[in-house]
């Protein structure tokens, strides 16, 4: 989680990892998830917040969160 907290993220979805120099962009869903993860929220809480805020069913929100978290793991950020 420390790697995740070090990320610099702007409102347009540009993400920079100062430890590695890598950068990439995320869509609005990824940006939302990333911000909540940085705040220390767990996956279930994030999915529930997404479902409520974006008027999407919980199952879809959970799938989006799981997919994104797996991508972060592949980048060794989690």
At a glance:
58% of the residues lie in helices and 10% in strands. With 78 residues, it is mainly α. It has one domain (2-74): Arc Repressor Mutant, subunit A.
Protein model, in words:
This protein is mainly α. It has one domain: Arc Repressor Mutant, subunit A, CATH 1.10.10. It is built from four helices and three strands, in the order αβββααα. The chain has helices spanning 2-6, 28-38, 43-54, 58-74; strands spanning 8-9, 14-16, 23-25. It has a three-stranded antiparallel sheet, with no helix packed on it. A hairpin with a 4-residue loop joins strand 1 and strand 2 (14-16). Helix 3 crosses helix 4 (58-74). The longest helix is centred in the last third of the chain and has 17 residues, at 58-74. The chain is globular, with a radius of gyration of 12 Å. It starts with a helix and ends with a helix. The mean pLDDT is 92.
Layout of helices and strands:
Layout: H1 2-6, E1 8-9, E2 14-16, E3 23-25, H2 28-38, H3 43-54, H4 58-74
- Average pLDDT value? 92
The helix-strand sequence is HEEEHHH
Oligomer: single chain
Apparent shape:
globular
Features:
78 residues; mainly alpha; Arc Repressor Mutant, subunit A; globular
């Amino acid at each position: 989680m420390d790697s995740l907290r070090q990320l610099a993220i702007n409102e347009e979805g540009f993400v920079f990892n100062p430890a590695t120099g890598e950068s990439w962009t995320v869509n609005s869903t990824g940006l939302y998830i990333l911000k909540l993860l940085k705040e220390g929220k767990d996956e279930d809480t994030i999915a529930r917040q997404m479902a409520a805020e974006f008027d999407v069913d919980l199952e879809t929100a959970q799938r989006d969160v799981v997919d994104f978290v797996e991508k972060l793991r592949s980048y060794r950020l989690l």
